Structures
1.
Amino acid sequence: MGHMIQLSAADGQKIPAYLAQPTGAVKGAVVVVQEIFGVNSHIRSVADGYAAEGYLAIAPAAFHRVKAEVELGYADADMGEGFGYKTAVEALPALGVMQDIQAAIDYAAQASGAKVGIVGYCWGGLLTWRAACTLKGLSAAVPYYGGGMTTEAEIARQPQVPTLAHFAEEDKWISLDSVEAFKKAHPGVQVFTYAAHHGFNCDQRASWDAPSAALARERSLAFFAKNLA
C-alpha cells in the first residue's frame, strides 16, 4: 500500500520514511514510530493498517543517523543488534532522532491537511512519549509499552497533548510498580494494562497476544478518532 519517501530534518539530514496513504477521505495523520527492529515489515503493516482506517501514516527510519536501511526480525541476534543501534541513537547530541520525528510530523500535517497523532512501540513508545512532551504539531499520542518511559527522568516530563498509554502486565522490562508511579504522576493520561507480555501488539513476535492487540488497537483508533477529528 505504501512506499518510501525522503524527509528533511531541521539540520538538513535526509531521513527515509515509509508513507501509507488512505484511499478515501483523510481522517487525519499518524506518525508510526518503530521498535528497535527498524522500519521492518511489521511496522510497515502497522502503517498500512492506519491507512486502511483513513489516516495518512508515516514511519520515519529512526536508526538512519547511525545505520541506514535497518530491517531486522525478532530473533535474539536481531534484538541484540537493534539494541546496539538504539543505544547509539540515544547517545547522539541534543535533538538527535527527535528532529527526524518532528520532520515526519511536519510532513504528515502538510500532506494530509489534517491533525496529526503519533503512535510508537517499545523504544518507539518512549520516543512517542518524548514527542508528546517536547515536539510541536501533535494533537494526540499513543505509546505502547514504552521502554524507559516509566523511569523517574521520563515521568518528570509533561505531555502537551492528550495521551493514551498501553502497558503489559507481564512485561519483564517495565515493572507494574513503575507503571503505577507513572499513572500517579500523570492522572490526565489514560493508562491501560493488558494480561500480556512486552511486544504483545506484534504478530511476528512470540509475545503477540491477539486479544490484547485487538483491544489496544480498538482503543487507539477511538482515541485518534476523538482527538484528530
2.
Amino acid sequence: MRPTRVITIGSRGSRLALCQTQHIANRLQDSHPQFRFVIKRIRTKGDELEETHLSRFGGKEVFIKELEAALLAGESDLAVHSFKDLSLQPPQGLEIAAVSQREDARDVLVSVKANSLSQLPHGASIGTSSLRRTAQVKSLRPDLDVGDIRGNIDTRLHKVSSGLFDGIILAAAGVIRLGWEDQITEYLPIDICLPAVGQGALAIEAREGDEEIKPVVSFLNHELTRQAITAEQVFLRFLGGGCHTPIAAFGQINNGVLELEGMVSTPDGSKLLRAKVKGSAELPEEVGSLLGEKLIAWGAKEILGGTT
C-alpha cells in the first residue's frame, strides 16, 4: 500500500498563528483526504523579542523569516502568515500560492473605561504596536496618551484588563479568529482608522515552481481579496513605505470596480493625508499606482521625508 503523503505547514507558535494555521490545515484536509497535513511550530525572532518595538529590530518581517527559511530548506511545504506581516516581495524561490478571503479588516478598541474612542476621558492611555494606528488616533484625539504595546493578543488584553492601559487597539481579524469578540468595545470605522495593507487576510506561501503543492492550495485563493491587496501593496511600494512610516490602504471591490483608499501621516498625526481612487479590479497595479501618484501630488513625499 502506498504511504500517505505528508504535507508540513510551518507556523509561528503564538495562539493566534496556530489558530490561523489550523484553520487552513483543516480546509486542506477536508479538500484533500488523500494527504495528511501536519503543523510544524517554528519560533521566530519576533516571538523572542515580543516586548521590543518592531522598528528597532528590522520590522514585521522578523515574524516570517524563519518560516521562509524552513520552506527554502525543504523542512516544510507551506507556511501560513497574516498577510500584513509579509514583505512587499517574497524571497527568491518562494511565492504566495493563495490569499484567503479577508476577515473583517477593521481595527477595534478594547477598553474598560469607555464605550468608544470618542468617549475616552481626556489624557487616557492607549496601547498600540502600530505607527499607523498611533498617527490616526492622535489625528482624531491629540489629547490621548498613546504608548507602545507588544506581545500576543492575550498578553495585550491582560494589560488593559489589569489597568496598565485605559484601552488598546487591535486588528479585528485576530480577535475574531480567537473567538474573543465579546472583548471588543468598538469596531473603529474605516474613515477613522484605515487598516494596514493586507490586514484581515492570510497568505499561504510555497516554494516557487512546486507543481505538486500549488494545485493542492489553489482552491483557497480568493481572487477579489488578492486583487484588492495587490492594489494596496502597489500603493505602499509606490510611496516606499515600511514599518517606520504611518501608511495605510484598503481596497474594496463591487461589481468589478476597485475602490482604493490610502493614508499617509506624520507619526504624531499632525499632518495626515487621505485620498480615494477607483478603477478596474482587473488592473489592481494601475489602481495602486494611481492612488500613489495622487497622494504624492498632495504632498505625501514631504510628510514621509519627515518620518525617517
3.
Amino acid sequence: MILIEVIVLLAVATAGLLAGRWLRLPPIVAYLLAGLLAGPGGFGLVSPSEATENLAEIGVALLLFGVGIEFSLDRIRRILMRMLTTGLLQVGVTIALATAIFHRFDYDWPSAVFAGFVLSLSSTAIVFKIYGQEGTLDAPQGQAAAAILLFQDLALVPMMLLIPVLAGPPSNAAVAATGALIKAAVAVGGLILLARTLLPKGLALVARAGIPEIFPIISLVIAFGTALGASALGLSLPIGAFLAGLALSGSVYAHQVFAEILPLRDAFVAIFFTSIGMLFEPAIVAAAPMLMAGMIAVVAIKGALIGAIVGTLWRSRRLAIVSGLGLAQIGEFSLVLAQQGLDAGIIDASFSQALLGAAILTMGATPFLMRAGTRLSRIDSASVESTATRQMRQHVVMVGYGTTGKAVARVLRETGIAFCGVDLNADSVAEARRENLPIQFGDATRRAVLENLGVPSARAAVVAVSDPVATRLIVGLIRQMNGDLRLIVRARYVSEIIELERLGADEAIPSEFETSIEIFARLLAHLGVPRHLIRVQESIIRVGHYQALRGIGLSTEFMEETRRIIAGGILETAQVIEGSEACGKTIRELEFRKRTGATVLNVVRDENPLPEVTPDTQLEAGDQLVLYGPHEAIDAAFRIIEPTVYKGSGYAAEGPEEGGKP
C-alpha cells in the first residue's frame, strides 16, 4: 500500500535528519545515509518499489520547480558574463576530462560523455545553505560560487535533453543532438513565454480574490500543470517544473507560491534522496572499487579546476582555495541525472552504485572541506562580508502594509533605514511597488516568506496585520528565527498583549487605546502638567494593561502606589556641568541630601556606572547623576549641579523646562 510506503520513507528520513543534525551532516547526506541503512544494502527495513519511484519523481519535479523560482532572471543578468565565463570553462573542461578518463576505462563514448555530465555538477543546495548560514552569499566567495553553480543548474537542462540522444544509435548522434536541442529550445522558449504571459495574470486574480486557501492549490496546479505541458512537448517532467519556476521567478507572487510548495517539496525531496540511498549496495561497489576511486579523482580534479578558474578571473589565491574546496563534490542533480541515465540504459548498475558512493562521501566531506578552506586561506567571513550583506543584516522587516505599515515604511525610507516588507493584499503591494518601496506579496505565516525577508539577520521587525490568529503565528515564527531582534507588534485589543508577549513580542501596542493615551497626554500638557508627570501617568496606564481606560477599577493598593509615585518623588538624570558648585566636590562636602532632599542613587562616569556610590564619592564634570526625590528636591539638586551663570539669569527661578534637564 502506497500510504504505508510513504509513512515508512518519511519516518526513515526523519530519523536520518535527526541523526544528521547531531553529526552535523547536510540534510541531503543524512537522507542518503538513512536510506542506505534502511534499504537492502543495510538492515533491509524497506525496499525500492514502483510507488517510491513515482514519489521520487514528484520530489525531483518540486525540487527543480523551487530551483527555477529561486533562480531569478534578474539575478542571472547581474552576473551573466562571469557566470558564462567561469561556468562554461568549468563544465566544459570537466566533461572533456571525465570523458577522456572514462573512455580509457573501456566505457563507450555515450557513457563516457554522460559520466562527464554527472561529475561536472556540484551541490547547489549544500553550498548555498552553508554560505547562507554564514551570511557570505554576497561576499566574493559567495558570488564566485553562485556564478558556477547557477551555470551548472542551467546546464542540467540540455544534459537531460541529450539523454535520449546518448541512448540512441551513435551513427546519427550529431544530427539527433542538434535536432533535439533545436526542438527543445523552441519548446522551452514557447513554454516560458506562455508561462510568463499567463501565470502572473492568473496569480494576480487569485491574490485579489482574497481567499488564502486557493494559493496552495494553484501553486500545485502551476508546478505540475506546466510540467505536464512540457512533457507533452517532448521535455521531461522535471524540466517542465524547472521552467515553470523560472517563468515565475520575476513575479511579485513567486515567493508566496514557493512558500506554499516548500513543505510539500521538502517532504518529497526527503523521499527522493532516501529512496536513492536505498538503492545503494556496497557489495557492488566493493566488487569494482577502482570505479568509485576514479570518480572521486575526477571530482578532485574538478575542485582544482574550479580553484584555478576562480583564482585567475578573480585574481585571488584565497578565493581560489575556498571555491575549489567548497565546490569539489558530486551534486544532488547528478543523482537525478544518473537515475534517468540508468533508466535510459546509458549507464549500468555498477556505475550508478559507484556514483552513489562517491556522492555520499564527497557531499558529507563538503562542510569540513569548506571550513578547512576558510582556515587555509585565512579568510575572516565577517571581514570580507560585502556592504550589501552588512546592510541586510541591519534592516527592518515589516509585516503588513496597511495604514500603520505604510506610515512606518515611508518614515523608514525618509530616514534612510534599510527595510523590506510583505503583505497579502495584492493592491497594497502594487501601490508600494509604484512608490518603489521594497514590499512583496506573501503570507508571513509561512517560514519561507520570512526567510526571504531576511528575518534571521534583521535588527527589528514590525508586525501590523489585522488577523489576530495570523499575528500570533507570525510573532512566534519570527522569534524562533531570530531571538535578538526587537519585535514590535500592533495588537487590536488589550486582551491580546499577554499572549503576544509570551510568544516573544518585545512590545505589543493595542490600537484601541493608544489614540486615547495620546489625547490624554496632550490634554494634560495643555493644562500645564509637567511632562515627566505625564510620562509617569502614561506608564501607569500601560503597566496596568489599560485598565483605567477600560473602565475596570484598579485595586486600592495600586492606586495608593500610583499616588505615592506621583506625589512622593520621581527619578531623574542630570549631568554635572563644569563650573558648577558640585564639580570637584564629594557628596558629603555638598551635604547633598540635607540641602536638597534628593538622593543620589548612582553615578555614571564615561558611560559606566560606578561600582559603589558613597558620601565620599567625588563628582566630576560630565558625571551623570541618577536622582530620586520630590519635585522640589530635584529642582534644588539642579541648582547645585548647574553652573553659577545660570543662577542669576532667571533660568533657575523658572525651573528646568523638561523634567529638570537644562
4.
Amino acid sequence: MIFAHDIPEGAKLYFGKKAKIKREIEKLASEVFENEEYEEIVSPYFSYHQLEALDEKELIRFTDSENRTLALRGDSSIDIIRIVLKRLKSEAKKWFYIQPVFRAPSTEINQIGAEWLEGALADVLNTNINILKRLNKNYPLILSHIQIPKTVCSLTGLDIEDIKKMRIYKFKEPWLKELLKINSPREIDLKRFPNEIATYLKELQGISKKIKYDIILAPLYVANLRYYNGIFYRFIHNNNVIAKGGEYIVEGIKSSGFSIYTDNLLKDLDD
C-alpha cells in the first residue's frame, strides 16, 4: 500500500533548518554569479536530446502527445547551450541555473550550475572555487583529462572498461605504470611518456598554473558524462562529489561548465 504522505525513493524533501541552509547556499551562489556577470536561466524539465549526455538506462523516459520520445532532464549543460544559441539567440556567454535533474528510476538531484560559451575552464573553475570559498569550504580538487584514457586505449589496445575499473594487471607498458603514480602537477616528467600522452599532460600542467588551489591529478580517471572532451574536475568530500565540471563542445562551440551538487554540500554543512 502507498500512503498519501509517502515520498518516492530518491525524491527530496527539505524543511526547517535544512531548507533554510539550502536557500542560503543558493542565495550566496547567485550573488557570486551576478558579481561575475552571469545571466540566470531556468530550463524545461523535459528534453528530447538527453542521450547525448547520459546512458539510456540513467534516463526517465516517456512520450509526448505525438509519440516522440523525451526524458526528464538528466543533465542541463547541452540543453542550456542549445536554448541560448537557437531559441534565445542571446549574445550573453555566461549563464547560471539553480534547478534539479532526474535519473532513473526516481532520483532527484538538486544542482547549482554554470555554463560559459567559449569560456576557458580555468575561469569557470575559479568561479566554482569562489562559491566554495564563500562557504568557507576547501574540498580536495581532482583534475583529469578524458583524452588521456582514450589515448591509452588507442596506444595499448586496452578497452576503456579496463581503465575505468583499474584492471592494473593488464597495464604492461612502463610509461602506463608511471602514469598511475602521478598525483600532482609537480610529478609530471613529460619525457617519460609518448608524445600523444605528453600533450594532454602538458594541458593539465597549464591549467594547474592558473588555479590558486591545491590540485590532485588523476590522469586515468574516466568521466561518466559523455560530452566532456578535454580537462574535467571534481571536488570530493567523504567519497561524495561536491561539484564537478569540464570542457565540452556543443554546436561546434568549445565551452566550459560545472555543477555543484546541493544535496552533498548540504550533508556536509548540516553535519
